[in-house]
């Protein structure tokens, strides 16, 4: 290659790099992106960009992502790009296949400098310094995007709503580098997780888009009309698949995000709950970085009294006894699975909490176990006007668990271990609050008034209907 040719190509690459992926599409890939694709690609143009796009079905988001991958790797030196999706089909058959298809549209002289082998794309002669990799982000493989470091980094996450939160940890770490960027796109099927929060609590950190099928020239009007006729414009399916908006709740989500945030904004006057019995729920830590939590509820009011990692049974028992006295609790419920030591210690001190077996039999036939029953009663309480503290930790805990049905038709709440496989933490705050719904509780002074002063003996059953 002559000096003149080299200078010409260098000038071309510089123009495409600074012009962004939209110019790259027009001049290199020889196609005109739709206005929605332009929105996505223009947003990723500058170093440090964080882009999150929720979309309806078929608007061409995977094409926009694939074009961005080719633009970034071929026009930035050095550069590394990590691509992921929650399933091999979405990653290999959709996103990565689209990268290969668009590569074929490049001019021959340019295409020959770009090689795609299995799950890797690289610039010839710069295999280790100018490349993209495709790695499926399964729950059991949260390290999908780890180990990538470069002066110029791009992370591309397709169908991000289905990607486990743990996968995003290396992404956030790498974004501390000025030249790093991330682009997420997805049908907005879930109302919890990293992608959802990028459009809500963390929206100020992201450039966000909601891209509707109605506005896309790639989607036929007949599809939109068919979805409207089948499900109605107010249905969650229409919101997600057509409008690119988040649903009121994910299909299997027990407590919708909207219900939890509404409960966090409510206010109560003292007379609206002061008459009700005081109930404590104590959820000792399950393992590792789980939290030990003590929650108090009085009628429609609730508050977290204690939450901490790494608390031993003796300390937790002492704290429970302290709050028991301070708030004159009428009922105290403790998860027996990990709280046997706490219960034993309180009994040694002359107190009689009610042990609750999360996996035990429900007192209502439609629930598969006690935990499922308590959480459903918690949801009913929220529906009826229950008030919670306006904290992100609590809201995320309440909105995290999903539910399903057993073979016998009974309702089953998602287990903690299964939530962790999805990349979510144990909902310790939610479990502690749910424990306050283990049984019905009567105010202690009312029992004394009915049965006399001797009724307040150390018996478990005296507080229960």
Description of the structure:
- The chain has 465 residues and is an alpha/beta fold.
- Helices cover 38% and strands 17% of the residues.
- It is built from 17 helices and 15 strands.
- The chain has helices at residues 3-27, 35-43, 61-75, 88-103, 108-111, 169-174, 194-198, 221-231, 236-243, 257-265, 313-326, 336-348, 370-383, 392-399, 416-421, 428-435, 444-451, and strands at residues 50-55, 79-84, 114-117, 120-123, 130-134, 153-158, 180-186, 207-211, 278-283, 291-298, 301-309, 331-335, 354-356, 403-405, 411-413.
- The strands form 3 sheets. Strands 3-4-5-2-6-7-1-8 form an 8-stranded mixed sheet.
- α8 (221-231) packs antiparallel against α9 (236-243) and α13 crosses α16.
- The longest helix is centred in the first third of the chain and has 25 residues, at 3-27.
- The radius of gyration is 27 Å and the shape is elongated.
- Mean pLDDT is 88; it is low at 449-465.
How would you sum up the global shape?
A: elongated
Work out the helix count. 17
Helix content: 25-40%
Which structural class do the helices and strands define?
alpha/beta
**Describe the biggest sheet?**
8 strands, mixed
Counting DSSP E segments of at least 2 residues, the number of strands comes to: 15
- The largest beta-sheet arranges its strands as 3-4-5-2-6-7-1-8
Average of the residue pLDDT scores: 88
Sequence stretches where pLDDT stays below 50 over 5 or more residues: 449-465
Percent strand equals: 15-25%
């Amino acid at each position: 290659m002559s000096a003149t040719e080299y200078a010409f190509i260098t000038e071309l690459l510089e123009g495409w790099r600074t012009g962004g992926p939209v110019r790259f599409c027009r001049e290199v890939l020889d196609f005109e992106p739709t206005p929605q694709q332009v929105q996505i690609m223009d947003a990723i143009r500058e170093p440090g960009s964080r882009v999150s796009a929720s979309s309806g079905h078929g608007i061409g988001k995977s094409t926009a992502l694939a074009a961005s991958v080719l633009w970034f790797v071929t026009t930035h030196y050095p550069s590394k790009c990590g691509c992921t999706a929650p399933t091999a089909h979405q990653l290999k058959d959709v996103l990565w296949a689209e990268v290969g298809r668009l590569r074929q549209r490049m001019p021959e002289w340019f295409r020959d400098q770009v090689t795609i082998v299995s799950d890797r794309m690289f610039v010839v002669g710069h295999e280790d310094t100018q490349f993209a990799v495709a790695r499926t982000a399964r729950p059991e493989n949260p390290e999908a995007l780890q180990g990538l470091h470069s002066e110029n980094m791009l992370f591309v996450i397709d169908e991000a709503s289905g990607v486990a939160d743990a996968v995003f940890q290396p992404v956030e770490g790498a974004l501390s580098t000025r030249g790093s960027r991330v682009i997420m796109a997805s049908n907005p099927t879930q109302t919890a997780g990293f992608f959802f929060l990028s459009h809500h609590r963390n929206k100020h950190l992201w450039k966000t888009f909601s891209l509707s099928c109605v506005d896309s020239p790639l989607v036929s009007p007949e599809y939109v009309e068919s979805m409207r006729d089948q499900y109605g414009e107010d249905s969650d399916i229409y919101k997600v698949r057509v409008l690119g908006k988040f649903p009121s709740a994910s299909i299997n989500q027990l407590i919708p995000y909207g219900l939890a945030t509404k409960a966090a904004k409510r206010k109560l006057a003292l007379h609206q709950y002061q008459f009700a019995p005081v109930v404590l729920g104590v959820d000792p830590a399950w393992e590792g970085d789980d939290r030990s939590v003590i929650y108090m509820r009085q009628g429609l009011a609730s508050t977290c009294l204690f939450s901490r990692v790494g608390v031993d049974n003796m300390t937790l028992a002492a704290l429970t006894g302290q709050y028991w006295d301070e708030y004159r609790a009428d009922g105290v419920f403790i998860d027996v699975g990990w709280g046997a030591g706490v219960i034993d210690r309180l009994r040694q001190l002359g107190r009689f909490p009610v042990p609750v077996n999360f996996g035990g039999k429900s007192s209502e036939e439609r629930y598969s176990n006690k935990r499922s029953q308590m959480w459903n009663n918690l949801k009913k309480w929220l529906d009826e006007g229950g008030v919670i503290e306006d904290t992100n930790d609590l809201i995320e805990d309440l909105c995290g668990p999903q539910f399903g049905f057993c073979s016998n038709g009974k309702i089953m709440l998602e287990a903690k271990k299964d939530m962790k496989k999805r990349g979510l933490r144990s909902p310790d705050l939610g479990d502690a609050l749910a424990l306050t719904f283990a049984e019905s509780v009567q105010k202690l002074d009312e029992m004394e008034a009915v049965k006399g002063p001797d009724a307040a003996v150390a018996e478990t059953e005296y507080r229960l209907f």
